[in-house]
Specification:
This protein is of the alpha/beta class. The chain is built from 8 helices and 12 strands. The longest helix has 16 residues. It is globular, with a radius of gyration of 20 Å.
């Protein structure tokens, strides 16, 4: 951009005032997640969950260094869009997102569904007039809201929330009729809040899962990406991913 005269100095000063991302080593990646148990969550400063345990094993096998950050989903997406050597996890792979990232996975098969409490007795049929009167929660930045729109739901039926914890609280408090998203994170979130996760009933499938992945900025250094992908594939081939996923599934029952 050209800055004639004194305006040039002003432009330069403004650029210098902008916060710059912290420098990272040549073999380091920034991995950004939201609070999405049992896949990824923080506990006393420790990054835990299925996807984080798998990241630990990938880092050990590949020799890559991983800096991690937990952020609200919409902000996490922005962070990864701005930093080339970064990845977003876990991310539902959809046709609309296909060209936005480079993918490694899946960590798990993830169906996007609509859930209601078993005690509500509610049913969901996108084309029914009764469904248009519902209040259905969807996390900001997730594909659930757009899938609800694609199914024919009006905006007044879609309640955007900042995260799965808020959606879960609102559902159990009766402020939402239903929630849309992935089953395991919501059931786990209910348990963390002291609520009965068994009350969550899947009443409609919005989209058969394309899988939950590690989603890399497309400008990621090719050598780092290949080292990460190779380590993941080795863990999958050796059965470590299957065993890890099975342990988490058993713990949810």
């Amino acid at each position: 951009m050209r800055c004639p005269g004194l305006a040039c100095l002003t432009c330069l000063l403004l650029l210098l005032a902008l916060p710059l991302p912290a420098a990272r080593a040549a073999d380091e990646l920034l991995a950004v997640s939201e609070d999405a148990p049992p896949f990824a969550y923080l506990d006393n400063g420790r990054f835990l969950g299925l996807a984080n345990e798998l990241l630990d094993r990938i880092a050990q096998r590949s020799g890559l260094r991983l800096q991690r950050s937990q952020q609200p989903w919409a902000r996490a997406q922005q962070t990864v869009q701005q930093l080339p050597n970064s990845l977003l996890y876990v991310t539902v792979r959809t046709p609309a997102r296909e060209s936005q990232y480079r993918w490694v996975g899946p960590v798990d098969d993830c169906d996007i569904v609509v859930m209601a409490l078993a005690t509500s007795g509610l049913a969901f049929e996108p084309k029914a007039a009764s469904s248009r009167q519902l209040r259905i929660g969807a996390v900001r930045g997730s594909p659930s809201a757009q899938l609800l729109r694609d199914a024919g739901l009006p905006e007044r039926a879609i309640y955007i929330t900042p995260g799965s914890e808020t959606s879960t609280k609102m559902l159990y408090a009766g402020h939402l009729d239903m929630i849309a998203g992935l089953v395991l994170p919501y059931a786990n979130q209910a348990g963390r809040l002291g609520l009965d996760g068994a009350q969550l009933n899947v009443i409609h499938q919005l989209q058969k899962g394309h899988g939950c992945y590690y989603a890399f900025n497309p400008a990621v250094d090719a050598r780092l990406f290949e080292r990460f992908a190779k380590a993941f594939e080795a863990l999958r081939a050796e059965g470590e991913l299957k065993a890890l996923r099975g342990r988490y599934l058993r713990a949810m029952r």
